[in-house]
Fold this protein.
Amino acid sequence: MLKNKALKLNIIGEILPKITDKMENAGYNDRDIMAIRAIACYEGVNSNDALLERDDLEKAVQTLIGKPVRILFDGANPTGHGYNKETKTFSKLVANIGFIQWAYGEVNEQTGRYEVIVEICVWQKYYPKISHRMRELHRLGELNFSIEAERDFETNHEGYRRCFNINFTGIAVVQCPAFQEAKSLMVADLKQQGGLKMENLQEILKNIKENVGAEIAEQFNNHLGLLNAKITEFEDNLKKAKNELTTAKEEIAEKDGVIKSLTADRDKYKDIVETAERQKLGQERLEKLQKYGKVEKTANELAELEKETFVDLLEKMVINYNPSEVAEQDGVGVHFENPSKKKVDNKTKLLNFLEGLV
């Protein structure tokens, strides 16, 4: 067993220039996927006094394949796991931004230790802001990961918790992966190169706890991370709402165009129908008037007359109606005789005409 309590798991991500063969064979491409290779964990004692032995890691390495890559993003940086030790649940603000495509174990030739390597796919097309920040952190040497797992453990005579029956449940992008023991967070540590050392961090946390209080300090840190994550969530929702509004406007514009096109076709058809109806009305009026003499107006002109105006014109022609003159004008030479010997006034003639008696 390793007795060096100061040994820390250094989990640093390396962003690859292109996707790996296994990713390519699975149908992924560089435009959608940001490929990352990282050391997930290795044998030894981590900063939480958890002991990982080679045999246990070899049995568990395959459980990493297909598990999610998670992040609690505050809008500018990754924070922690977002795990509540009291409720033993993760925050709803934790996002799954990718998955582990492949995992394998190998012995590091320089250190001689057994390491668990993961090849990660991050959906950079759907998380552009997070992906961009991860690239920046990689350039700064600060892209850190912390594995999440379920396990059993037993405390050995050296005081370390030996973990066994390990089932990896995922890996998280974190800012400072140094947390107290939690059931689902087995490995949590700081990177060794650059940034804070474990001893410095413990000193800082000690000062905060002495001056403010451990519980208040932890609550403040948790609330700050959740608040930043909530702001990010609102920003994402706002962006989504704007995109949906733009899409809706585009659909409305297209539908307005369809409506205008249909309206134009309807108006065109309406004009044709109304023209035909006017022509029919004009012809009917012309034929009625021609029975009582020569008509000066055309059928189109008669169609435009108001009904009362046409009736007045009809009444005038009926009053001046002379069957003999009309017959002579037509060249027929037929004379009509009134079968009634009683004198009929003009109004009665018009009424008789309208009733079909004349």
In short: The longest helix spans residues 214-290. The radius of gyration is 46 Å. Residues 1-10, 178-185, 187-202, 332-337 have pLDDT under 50 and may be disordered.
